Amino acid sequence: MPMSDNNAQPESSIRVGKAKLPVAKILEGETLSELIHKIGHETGNPLTSIISMGTVLSTISSGSSTNNILEKTLKYSNSIIDEAWRISRLNERLVMLLSRRTGNATLTEVAPCAEKTIKKLRGRYKKIFKPLKLEFEIEEPSPKAVIDELQLMVIFSELFTNAAEATKDNSLNSPKQTETLPTKVSIYSKEKNVVLEVTSISKNKCPYELDSLFDPFVTKDTDKKPIGLCLTVCQAIAERFGGTIEVKEELTPKGYTFKSIITLAGKELL
């Protein structure tokens, strides 16, 4: 007689993910070789756009343009702008991932960096970040961490990118609900450290083991996010300044709550 599974324990509604290795260890051997290959492939895309745009301009200059040349020029112009911004972000990620420089590591107020980052993203990538709603919860007085401001902004940029992707189609409670649920940004002190949390709610469970999210190239979106370096970059920066990072996912009545938690050194460690 088969045993009953009535006493089987239900799957936990909370998952926690942490990096298995430091970034310096991850980026060795075949992983580094794969990264170089993907970089070469990605830089080819904007170069193709530049060549195409140059061809159009050459045609206009020669006087042999057709009636729809202006339409083609506009198309290629928009394409080259998009590609240039994308490769700019890629270069920024790679510098932050591979460099060991701490930059101007000073006591930095964290909240203004988050606000400057989202303003910058909305100015450059309106379609992606304009729908993203942020809800700030900042401890008073505003916490300060020992980190380079530009590198802290890269952390926020990566976390906001993840949040925008996770919440872009959140019709969670009703088919008529078209607005996305807000992403919560919490910044607070904990003992001698500063903690920043970015929490978004999605109707979909993360399809990966959470520990694997810190590995390079973890992505299924091959068009918009071809290299999948978000949390790897965040881990590299956090480690550079003696910090840590982990992620948590929990099933709630509103959907799957995904939280990225980064802990940085506070002013007491200066």
Subunit arrangement of the protein: single chain
Shape: globular
Please state the average pLDDT score: 79
Q: Which CATH architecture of one domain is right?
A: 2-Layer Sandwich
Count of individual helical segments = 7
The strand order across the widest sheet is 1-7-8-6-5-3
CATH class of one domain: Alpha Beta
How far apart the termini lie comes to: 67 Å
- CATH topology name of one domain: Heat Shock Protein 90
Low-confidence stretches: 1-5, 171-178
Radius of gyration: 22 Å
Largest sheet: number of strands, sense, barrel closure:
6 strands, mixed
Number of strands: 8
Order of helices and strands: EHHHEHHEEHEEHEE
Approximate strand percentage: 15-25%
Class based on secondary structure composition and strand pairing: alpha+beta
Percentage of residues assigned to helices: 40-55%
CATH superfamily of one domain: Histidine kinase-like ATPase, C-terminal domain
Structure notes:
It is a single chain. The protein has 270 residues and is an alpha+beta fold. It has a domain at 14-24 and 105-269: 2-Layer Sandwich (Heat Shock Protein 90). The protein has helices at 23-26, 29-62, 69-98, 110-124, 126-129, 149-167, 230-240; strands at 14-18, 105-109, 134-138, 144-148, 183-190, 193-202, 244-252, 255-265. The protein has a 6-stranded mixed β-sheet, covered by helices on one side. The radius of gyration is 22 Å and the shape is globular. The relative contact order is 0.16.
